[in-house]
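User: Design a sequence. Structure:
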């Protein structure tokens, strides 16, 4: 086992529907009110500026909804979603659920001295809230680092994995993901890779060649 294991979330640790249905449906009606109520927050203001630049128009909420409909991993959208989800978890409106094999595997790796980190398109704030409020309790003590498209970069570019390796100060890293393109990028950066083929998930029947493939974590 590598010194570090870095894990994707959606489709790897948790069902895609947990994000695309439960979390998206929770965030969608709250985006407009959140922007109105937190407009003075520098993080929100910067996200709004980015949304206008990227969309080319001033209808921020429409742009956000369009991106959600297309499941586009746009950074300012992920930032705002993460803030909303963070509050939702804190209020008890949301509880994260994992595939049955995930929490036992995370605990075993942690107990065996493997260092664990997350690399997800969801914001770091959203990731932390996700792992703090789960059906298995607070799992954040198991994790050493969280990476997103802001502090690492796009998940399908090798440069992002080089950047993470620099932060972890290690070249002994294994990446688990259900998306072959992400595995290709990690492998290009010199990482070990493992494809996670979950039955019923969007990439469950994908071609993971040349990456070793598992159907559950262990």
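Assistant: Done.
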């Amino acid at each position: 086992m590598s010194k570090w294991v870095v894990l994707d979330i959606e489709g790897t640790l948790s069902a895609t529907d947990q994000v695309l249905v439960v979390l998206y449906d929770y965030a969608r009606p709250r985006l407009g009110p959140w922007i109105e109520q937190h407009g003075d927050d520098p993080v929100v203001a910067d996200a709004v500026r980015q949304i206008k630049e990227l969309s080319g128009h001033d209808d921020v909420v429409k742009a956000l909804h369009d991106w959600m409909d297309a499941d586009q991993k746009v950074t300012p959208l992920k930032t705002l979603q993460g803030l909303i989800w963070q509050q939702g978890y804190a209020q008890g409106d949301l509880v994260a659920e994992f595939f049955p094999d995930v929490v036992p595997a995370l605990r075993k790796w942690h107990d065996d001295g493997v260092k664990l980190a997350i690399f997800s398109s969801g914001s770091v704030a959203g990731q932390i809230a996700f792992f703090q409020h789960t059906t298995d309790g607070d799992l954040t003590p198991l994790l050493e680092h969280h990476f997103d498209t802001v502090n690492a970069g796009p998940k399908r570019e090798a440069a992002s994995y080089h950047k993470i390796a620099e932060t972890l100060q290690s070249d002994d890293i294994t990446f688990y993901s259900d998306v072959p393109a992400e595995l290709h990028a990690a492998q290009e950066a010199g990482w070990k890779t493992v494809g996670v083929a979950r039955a019923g998930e969007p990439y469950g029947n994908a071609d993971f060649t040349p990456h070793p493939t598992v159907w559950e974590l262990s």
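DSSP finds nine helices and six strands in the chain. The mean pLDDT is 96.
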